[in-house]
Every structure is written in structure tokens, then in C-alpha cells.
Amino acid sequence: MAAVRSLRDVVRRKVLRSLKKSEIAVVGVTGRNGAGKSSKVAPAIKLIAQESGVLAHILPLDAFLILSSADRAAWITEGDQVGVEQSTRRRNELNWWDFNKLDAHIQNWKNGNPIHLKQIRNPADGGRLTGELLVPAPEKRAVLILEGKGVAHLDYHDVLFFVHAPSYVRLERLRRRDTYRTPEETEARFQITERFEEWYFAQHKDRIHFWVDNSSQDKDLLVSTDLEEIL
Hints:
Elements: E1 5-6, H1 7-16, E2 24-31, H2 37-51, E3 55-60, H3 69-82, H4 84-91, H5 99-110, E4 115-122, E5 128-135, E6 142-147, E7 159-164, H6 167-177, H7 183-204, E8 210-213, E9 222-224
Parallel strand pairs: 2-6, 2-7, 3-6, 7-8
Antiparallel strand pairs: 1-9, 4-5, 8-9
Helix pairs in contact: 1-2, 3-4
């Protein structure tokens, strides 16, 4: 039986204690849409690291989205009209992000340089590409928290967390979060992402080191190496 621990305990034991005085670590935070990766778990890991005197920065995968939310929706609709091959390709979310750009920036950061991104997805502006992000260069011990559903297959992670929440909980969170979308648009997008996530995480679940239960925003985050132990 796998032990159930707090997120604080796992981050301190498995991430921070492994860092030497001049090392950096990349912590992955993945999970399905609406699970609480960016709103709760990634910020919690950052706070735990900072409380322990370790610099920590969050790098969202969505900073590497190629299209705005509106343009991506139109691109998918166009693919559906063209035919099955294009529809399948455009609904595969791995084609939504620029992984080559991500790789270049992470390697550059590991080499001691900052990450400065412009014209990235801005949730406060309806998903338009009007945002900007600066991740300072690492100094001494540092943690980069790479957050996003599509990071599970990447090889950067020293530790990879999967954030879990039931589908009905995640859909309700998305309805409250994505107010720039109509309820119908939110439901349609949710169905697209659910199909992708079912396939994607089945392929890469063996890469996950820890499962984090975020079924309720009001409860403490519990972590285990076995998902069944925290449900």
C-alpha cells in the first residue's frame, strides 16, 4: 500500500532536499482540464519552495500556444469541414503548442538565462495573444515549475505530479473560470479535451511520479504514488 502524504511533505522530501547548493530542478504539473494545475497546485509548490529558501518560477505550457483561443476554435471547425484527416490532426492537442520553442527556452534557462515571452495567451483578455511573461535567470538553487496538461510526455521533469479531479468538478470549474465563453462553447471544448486527455494520459501514465487529489478546493492537497490511495 502506497503512503499518502501532504503536498508540502512530498515537495520538501523529493524536490528540495535533492537540490545541492547550485542545482536547478524542473517540476512538472500535469492533469486534465480544470483539475487545478495552474490555479492551485503549481502555486502551492512555488510557495513551499520559497518558504524553504529556494527560488521557484512557474512556466505555463499555454504560454507556447500557437493560436489564440478564437483562432484555434475556428481552425478546428475548418478542419472538421475539410475532412476526417484534418479534423483528427487539429483536434490532437499536441499540435496546439510549439514544443520546439518550449525546448529552446528551457535549455536556455538551464544555461543561466531568463525566459522572456511576448504575445502569449492572456486568459484575462479572452485567450488572445496579448500576454507577456518573464522568468528570471536561475540563481543558486532554483525550481522551474512546468505546468500544463501536455507536459506528461516531456523528458525535462525531475518530478512529475498529476492533478486529479472528477470530470463533473472540472467542468463546473471551467464554467466559472472561462466566462468569456458561452456555456455551450465551454461544454463543446470540454468534450474535445476529454477525448484527447483519455488517450494522452493512457500513453504516459507511467511517467507520473505522484498523484495529487484536488477534488475539493477546500481540502488539503494529498499526494500518493498510487491514485487509488487518495480517492
